[in-house]
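RETRY 2/3 - previous attempt timed out on the joint model. Re-submitting the same 532-residue input unchanged.
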Amino acid sequence: MNDIIIAVRNLSKSYSGRPALRGLDLAVPRGSICGFLGRNGAGKTTTLKLLLGMLRRDAGEICLFGGSVESEASSVAARRRLAFVSEDKELYSFMTVSQTIRFTRAFFPKWRRDLEEKYLDLFRLPREKAVPKLSKGMRTQLMLLLAMARGAELLIMDEPTSGLDPVMTEEILQAIADLAASDGTTVFFSSHQLAEVEQICDRVCLIDDGQTVIDGVLDDLKSQYRRILVVFEGAPPAELAGFPGVDHIRRRGRTASLLVHADVDRTVARAREFGPLSVEVCPVTLKDLFLDHGKGD
Amino acid sequence: MLWYKAWLETRWRFVSMVGAMLLTWLTPLWLSSIGLRLPAGVPASRIWLGVHLGSTILYVVTAIFLAGSGINSQTTYAVTLGFHGSMLFTLSLPVSRRGLLFARAGLGALETSVLVAIMAGFSLFQQPGVASALQSLAYITRAIVCTMAVYASSVLLACILDEVWQLVAGGLCWIAILVLQIRFDVVSRVSPLRGMNLISYPVTGPMPWTPLITSLVFSGILLYAALLVLRRKEY
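RETRY 2/3 succeeded.
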């Protein structure tokens, strides 16, 4: 399907026998901004590197722009249409800003000079400064400039705002959102910052222990899920976990917190059968989803 | 543009080797300027021998030094621990790994060849009238071809080891071959180290085809192995 720009099915990858991905599924539609969430070691960076052909998969299928990236030639062809910002933001230490831009520009015939100038000005990047002399924030901005000006259809980023101050983070998020809105660029980025994912993403994919636990439109997920807080006189009964539609349960003393994705009314009614002191239904935040799905019991 | 990048990342190495080359040439002049002369009875050709031997060692050092950096990594150390420097940026560009190896190893080979040709030419220049133009050209060619065996081995090592260890392993590998060629006739006959100097095979003698062909075959095999390693490498 051409509308799905990243399609990953049953992807597996191990390092020296230790599984990093275990049958991961993922679908990112064209034009969306998708946040890729998961705890440290959940398999986010491994997934991104597999998409780019930096790692070899053990099993499964990866399609970019509707085609497989099995061979090196197809991977190279896909890389003509995408941009990647790595977590470490490392660029060539032996080049200046303008040399790095000139070098990168040569690989992309659709290079946008207007965007190059726009982001050079916006980010106030000194053209003749050597890359090692740039701050981490400036290196991130330069990488974003290189990614955005190449006219890519897909922007893949691994924690683009890690280590940046709030002002710079905001500038970068704004630039990403603007690009997606103006050019229809698909953005897929991993992050630990739930607030920034909520700010600019319309989709989220949450993985845990190498498997997808949530993949969908953010607003739909928020409307599908509810948190039910039930307070008992004593310890919450164990049967609550077995209710249909309950994804996750947390117990704190006399309180049980249930994350429910279906049959909310029925779950409330069944909880009341245990004679609780109170039952409260609350909307969920992305943080709730992340903490409940990405943490185990 | 990969050639441009390869030049930028190797240029200080190239300049360093030009410096080492000049140092080797100027040392005899400097020694004589401070009054150090050969003892009576020792022929002046000893000076030429020393300079040529120095140049031959420099062929090897140049090949090892110019093969490092930028082939499978862009950091000096800890690549094997997963720190790849700017390599992730390079691999996200629409270039094949074969293209990367071809550009980087190709430019390094070109730089090495230029320096070896200059040093070999200088060795011949120090012995005016000994060799014809054709013999000189033949020697420069064999010096380059034999040095390429050292270069190819260093490229392979650069695809496997961190750069620091690539330099050490490259040096140790060719010291081992030097020892083996002293001890075993068969190694001596095929050794690129003998093929590249004028002491083992004088410029006026016949072309030493055995070390020359061995070097060519050896280089081809090692570069192909480097390509296979690089293609299978995970970042």
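Chain B has nine helices and no strands. Closing ticket.
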